[in-house]
Amino acid sequence: MPGTLTSPPLTAADRCDRCSAGARVRAVLVSGAELLFCQHHANEHADRLREMNATIVSDSETAAATI
User: Fold this and answer.
1) Burial grade of 3 (CB within 10 A; 0-12, 13-18, 19 or more)
2) Cα–Cα distances in angstroms (integers) from residue 14 to residues 22, 39, 44, 54, in the given order
């Protein structure tokens, strides 16, 4: 039985891929690639991430949610 891969929680060392601010959101694309965003950029790109069926995990959430 294959295992489930999970991402580690975001830490203070994780930075937004757009502006280098502290990452608050992890977007996992269908391909498995991950993008880290500050809340501002997560909000800015939410529509496109939704179109791409990305799984979004916020640092304030304990479980993943698809937006």
Assistant:
1) exposed
2) 6, 13, 19, 19
Residues 18 and 63: their CA atoms lie apart, in Å, by 24
**What does pTM read for this prediction?**
0.79
C-alpha 17/C-alpha 52 separation (Å) is 18
Eight-state DSSP code of residue 44: H
Q: Read off the pLDDT of residues 13-59 as tens digits, 9 standing for 90 and up.
A: 999 999 999 999 999 999 999 999 999 999 999 999 999 999 999 98
